[in-house]
Amino acid sequence: MKVTEIIAKAQESGKARFSFELLPPLKGDGLHSIFDAIDSLMPFEPAFINVTSHREEMKYVERPDGLIEKHVVRRRPGTTGVCARIKQKYGIEVVPHVICGGQTKYDIEDLLIDLDFLSIKNVLALRGDAMPGTHRFVPHAEGHAHAEALVRQISDMNRGIFLDAEPNTNHRSDFCIGVAGYPEKHVEAPNDLTDLGYLKQKIDAGAEYIATQICYSTERLLRFRDRCAQTGINVPILPGLKPFATKAQLNILPQTFAVDLPQLLVDKVQACKDNDEVKKVGIEWGIKQGEELLRAGFPVLHFYTMTRTQQVQEILKGLL
After folding, report:
1. Dihedral-angle region of residue 77 (phi above 0 means left; psi in -120 to 50 means alpha; beta otherwise)
2. pTM score, two decimals?
3. pLDDT at position 71
4. Burial zone of 169 (CB within 10 Å; 0-12 exposed, 13-18 middle, 19+ buried)
5. pLDDT tens for residues 44-80?
6. Euclidean distance between CA atoms 132 and 189, whole angstroms
7. Taking a C-beta distance cutoff of 8 angstroms, is the pair 320, 39 a contact?
8. Biggest distance spanned by C-alpha atoms of the chain
9. CB 315 within 8 A of CB 287
């Protein structure tokens, strides 16, 4: 089932649904951490599960002669395999992240063909981050510089159009395409209006729903929904939530995700004696924000779990 169909059914039934995002395991690890995370969330009937995709990075190794060798490595490969295994084992819809970074258009086409053969019908199309250790996204010479172009490539495949007009076939993929949205604007956008313009371009290119960046303010999420509607963006929006867990996140989250933390949340976290107390604050904040978003008409809440699910479980118990 497509994500848009899941959202529509949740809206019609009035039953709140939840989705989750997981990381592929580090290279050399098995799937036990993934399965443990999903097992802990199964009582809450996940609507679907996102699996992130990670681009290459540079590893520098000193040779015996003292010279330095540069290796291109991927620390978390296996997104497609993880998705296929989750769908096989649990029967839950999966949403692999498809990124521009580090890939040619032909790499992406081959990946999409594999996903199509595996009957995976949902994808989240992202530009992706800059290569670790760099400060600016640089596209592959034969790849895409922006998510809009990636969405167009996927949309073309849905119409039976492949690169170089090959293969000569009438087969069409049937992907439901999601994209990212930023309630507090993307860090690289000069202003909110420009950022919404970029989002509109992705929707016009064929994207069918929006998953937002982490946001701790219900007010900002509602304002984002309103501004989308005013811009002519009328696709479903999934608010992105992540339980606050440590005092260090007061600095890490704004730096990593360019989010603005509400002062009330900052005050509550700063007043905590240790991270155990912070986790309790994170659960309380997650329940309160989740209740507000459900009342405001968001039928599906999307949790960034990163395979750490204990707080999410407690939040969902509070919401149910």
Report:
1. beta
2. 0.93
3. 66
4. exposed
5. 999 999 999 987 766 666 777 767 776 667 778 899 9
6. 20
7. no
8. 67
9. yes
